[in-house]
TrEMBL record:
The gene is LOC110745525. The lineage of its organism: Eukaryota, Viridiplantae, Streptophyta, Embryophyta, Tracheophyta. Residues 1-151 form the Protein kinase domain. SUPFAM superfamilies: Protein kinase-like (PK-like). It comes from the Eukaryota. This is Wall-associated receptor kinase-like 3.
Length: 151
């Protein structure tokens, strides 16, 4: 909790390793360019600690995967809700690809990287493997979730 009462989420690297540090730096650079209602907002970072730390808005209802794979009587995933969530994700990706200052390619869209806010609205998260501007020739992300443009 911040001094102003806001609850935040803190992302901290488990292991100090050069590739993870560059992923954190990359995430800061990518997220500092983004302002969209369906993308998790980066509030701040600290790179002067033993391991880098990112501070995000808190998204209270977990990830989409939990609701797809586990029965939840509080929030059933009807076809209408699934379609709304898909539209929200598509809108965020459209913004990232076409409306951001530079095109941003997430490269790891999957249900565990889609968070649900207090009103169960989709928020795209985890930009560690994202790239802006040009796509490099190395493919990163979770196999099976790559953008078809890679193939």
């Amino acid at each position: 909790m911040l001094t102003d009462g806001r609850i935040v989420a803190v992302k901290k690297s488990k292991i100090v390793d050069e590739s993870q540090f560059s992923d954190f730096i990359n995430e800061v650079v990518i997220l500092s360019q983004i302002n969209h209602r369906n993308v998790v907002q980066l509030l701040g970072c600290c790179l002067e600690t033993e391991v880098p730390i990112l501070v995000y808005e808190f998204i209270p209802n977990g990830n989409l995967s939990q609701y797809i794979h586990e029965q939840n009587e509080e929030f059933p995933l009807t076809w209408e809700v699934r379609l709304r969530i898909a539209k929200e994700i598509a809108g965020a990706l459209s913004y990232l690809h076409a409306s951001a200052a530079f095109p941003i390619y997430h490269r790891d869209i999957k249900s565990t990287n889609i968070l649900l806010d207090a009103k169960f609205r989709a928020k795209v998260a985890d930009f560690g493997t994202s790239r802006s501007v040009a796509i490099d020739p190395l493919v990163h992300g979770t196999f099976g979730y790559f953008d078809p443009e890679y193939f």
